[in-house]
Amino acid sequence: MRATDVVVIGAGQAGLSSAYFLRRAGFEPEDGYVVLDGDRAPGGA
């Protein structure tokens, strides 16, 4: 099991925007944050 600092629930517009700004703030993907979604593809409505 891995530890992460932030979990973003949903890969819709708000979730992807959150991930973008987390990355810009210095968080590293998978170690600092992870985006989870129920669909296979990101984007949502």
From TrEMBL:
Task: Extract the Pfam families matched here.
Answer: FAD_binding_3 (PF01494)
Q: Which residues form a coiled coil?
A: none
Q: Name one GO molecular function term.
A: FAD binding
Outline the extent of the FAD-binding domain. 4-28
- What InterPro entries is this protein classified in? FAD-bd (IPR002938), FAD/NAD-bd_sf (IPR036188)
Protein name, entry field: FAD-dependent oxidoreductase
Region forming the signal peptide:
none
Native source organism of the sequence: Actinospica durhamensis
